[in-house]
Amino acid sequence: MKAQTKSKKLTAKAMVLAVLQDCPGARNSDAVLYEKVYERYYGRQVLSGTVLAFLRLLRDGEIVDPDNLRRTRARIQNDEAMFRPTDPETMRRRGRNY
Asked: Is 37 exposed, middle or buried (0-12, 13-18, 19+ CB in 10 A)?
């Protein structure tokens, strides 16, 4: 049975929106987005554990998939026109006219 955590009550979109609002660096970097989401909603133990432990949590559905976070961030920025990137290089690399 999956453990019930406070993060289970939130959707990936709610988590990503909160992080994008509070951390402008996450608007430019998916790695920063992942770090901030896992730190805020799952605790430091996720970030300080082993890669194998992280993969087990991912496999067991205990944490949100990083690809889901990336796709959610892209939808928020591209489709909803919210929390756009702040770095010109990131905008160029993503090929969007923000």
From this structure: buried
